[in-house]
Design goal:
Layout (H helix, E strand, L loop, with lengths): L1 H18 L1 E8 L2 E3 L7 E2 L1 E5 L2 E6 L1 H7 E8 L4 E4 L1 E6 L1 H7 L3 E2 L6 H14 L5 E6 L13 H6 L5 E5 L4 E4 L1 H7 L10 E6 L2 E8 L2 H7 L5 H17 L2 E9 L1 H12 L6 E7 L2 H7 L5 E2 L3 E9 L29 H12 L4 E6 L2 H15 L7 E5 L15 E5 L1 H7 L3 H9 L6 H8 L3 E2 L10 H10 L19 H8 L1 H6 L17 E4 L16 E6 L2 E5 L3
Parallel strand pairs: 1-6, 2-7, 8-15, 9-10, 10-11, 15-16, 16-18, 18-19, 19-20, 20-21, 21-22
Antiparallel strand pairs: 1-4, 2-3, 4-5, 7-23, 11-12, 12-14, 13-14, 17-18, 23-24, 24-25
Helix pairs in contact: 3-8, 6-7, 8-9, 11-12, 13-16, 16-17
Length: 544
């Protein structure tokens, strides 16, 4: 009797198995944060042909499907692939071959790193990035004399952490034809004792770039692949590159089509005549891996280099209000041109004067557009009368790490009253209804968990300040997660394809070693990616 029952059970199992639907991948026994409209947490999902085909309980998925690749997540948390809504992806890769100046605590340390680099590299130009005078005991811009002595015959170009200032030597100044009489709107050649100090803020930097050799396509391709590795290690599956030239977009597209670059890129085209004339005369360009439908504009510079445009003078420089890179009239002309296309306008605005100008230029145009989703990149310092001008038509694209990086000196720049309207992420969310979160890497680290921690704890990686910086503007964990996934996808017009674990969307997801939605705040920055998958295929794993 027992033997007959065993045969029947084996027969039924074979029938059920043969009736199960075949898929490429099943993930089960997981804590799956779907980030759907109900913010559901489920146990399992199935993937086929690069997309999610079912989401549900362990029993629902395992009983309905079978696959040759079945992953028991052992209870680990699974999230949609993270989206960095504002970064410089190509720039990150290119910077890897330069002098790394992040974290230097003095100009002397900068010089030591440059000397070490020069001794170990045979380059015709010495480039570096990452210095920040606000981290030094002497919080003043450096000058070029030591560079002139050490490197009289080779140009040296050292970029400030925010990308809005250079320190260059005399050789670089001579090649670019820059002297004490050089002036450019939207920036400054810093002068002392009637001579250039070597510090160039914003627009004059282009004079240096124009005379130095540009990286080759081969060098750029290598840089993109190296940047992709870093992104995947950190759980990023989509990056919004804020300002690319036409030829760089073509290069990314060709690498993706050849299968040499798997990360998805939302490309903001740089605001150049060549770019605008080429792209705005066409429809937006879209593949599964590349989306070209926005224009990146600079309204002003950065707060750390005092290039941000303020309504009232800087508190630590009473005769200075910063400068516009693109003024109100030009913003209005550009907004009108873009509004007649299907492209989105994404404008860098740091100071309250710049944000006010961008909001004015935008509002004149978006009222005629049904669903523009124009973005203000950074939205860093907002006048108290301007918060109510944000909406789902004008989206804040913000970087939580800027708040915790800048908090030690921001009040010096802005004063105690004005700084309360800076890095006001919760206030911006309350008015706009959505926020897109990014890092601005390589200005900040390529780490979405640091972004998440800065958003929800408002503390630096040392845990300071104890109660959080301007903690009234913390985001909840759910809001921060949305900003890194579904809301970021919405800001890219891609919410139907990515940003959540839902049927029909790309199977981009990450498995983490801890649950950032549940662990104590102090444990969030140490989170690590166990695996990153794009289209249901592993692109990074720390498990051999």
């Amino acid at each position: 009797m027992y033997r007959n029952l065993k045969v029947v059970f084996l027969f039924l199992f074979a029938v059920l198995t043969s009736c199960a639907e075949r898929v490429d991948l099943i993930v089960h026994n997981a804590t799956v944060y779907t980030v759907d409209n109900q913010m559901q947490i489920v146990e399992a999902f199935a993937v086929n042909d690069g997309k999610f085909v079912a989401v549900g309980s362990n029993d629902e998925i395992l009983n309905k499907f079978n696959a040759s690749n079945v992953v028991d997540a052992q209870g680990l948390p699974v999230f949609p692939g993270f989206i960095d809504a504002h970064c410089h992806f190509l720039g990150l890769g290119l910077n890897l071959s330069q002098v790394q100046l992040q974290g230097t605590t003095s100009f002397e340390e900068v010089i030591d790193r440059v000397k070490d680099y020069a001794e170990n590299n045979d380059n015709t130009v010495i480039r570096g990035r990452g210095w920040d005078q606000n981290d030094w005991e002497v919080k003043e811009f450096p000058t070029k004399e030591i560079l002139d002595q050490l490197f009289p015959n080779i140009p040296v170009v050292l970029e400030r952490i925010d990308g809005h200032a250079y320190l260059v030597n005399q050789k670089a100044l001579d090649l670019a034809g820059i002297d004490e009489n050089t002036t450019m709107a939207g920036g400054a050649v810093v002068i002392k004792d009637n001579k250039p100090t070597g510090v160039l803020i914003d627009t004059p930097m282009a004079l240096i770039d124009a005379v130095l050799p540009a990286p080759s396509n081969a060098e750029k391709a290598k840089a993109l692949k190296e940047a992709e590795k870093i992104a995947f290690e950190n759980g990023l599956t989509t990056v919004d590159d804020a300002g690319l030239l036409k030829e760089d977009i073509f290069l990314i597209d060709s690498l993706q089509k050849r299968g040499e670059l798997n990360i998805r890129v939302y490309a903001m085209i740089a605001n150049t005549k060549d770019n605008l004339d080429y792209f705005l005369s066409k429809e937006p360009y879209k593949t599964d891996h590349l989306n070209v439908r926005s224009v990146k504009v600079y309204a002003d510079g950065a707060l750390g280099s005092r290039g941000a445009a303020l309504l009232a003078p800087y508190s630590d420089m009473p005769n200075h209000k910063g400068a516009f890179i693109t003024g109100l009239d030009s913003l209005k002309v550009l907004a009108e041109r873009i509004s007649k296309t299907k492209f989105q306008m994404n404008t860098h605005a740091i100071g309250d004067a710049a944000n006010a100008a961008v909001l004015e230029a935008y509002r004149e145009r978006v009222r005629f557009l049904r669903d523009p989703r124009w973005r203000i990149e950074h939205a860093q310092v907002i006048d108290s009368t301007d918060f109510d001008k944000f909406s789902k038509k004008i989206i804040p694209s913000i970087q939580p790490l800027h708040a915790t990086s800048d908090m030690y000196w921001a009040e010096d720049r802005l004063g105690a009253t004005r700084v309360k309207n800076a890095y006001a992420f919760k206030d911006l969310l309350d008015w706009a209804g959505v926020v897109a979160l990014g890092t601005d890497f390589p200005v900040e680290t390529v780490n979405p968990f640091h972004t998440f921690y800065a958003a929800v704890a408002r503390k630096d990686l040392s845990g300071n300040p104890e109660k959080g910086y301007q903690s009234e503007n913390k985001l909840s964990r759910g809001e921060a997660l949305l900003g890194m996934t579904r809301w970021a996808a919405y800001a890219n017009f891609e919410e139907d394809q990515k940003g959540s674990i839902e049927v029909g969307k790309f199977a981009d997801f990450v498995i983490l070693d801890r649950d950032i939605m549940d662990v104590p705040h102090r444990m969030i920055p140490g989170a690590r990616v166990v695996a990153t998958l794009v289209n249901g295929k592993i692109v990074y794993s720390n498990r051999k």
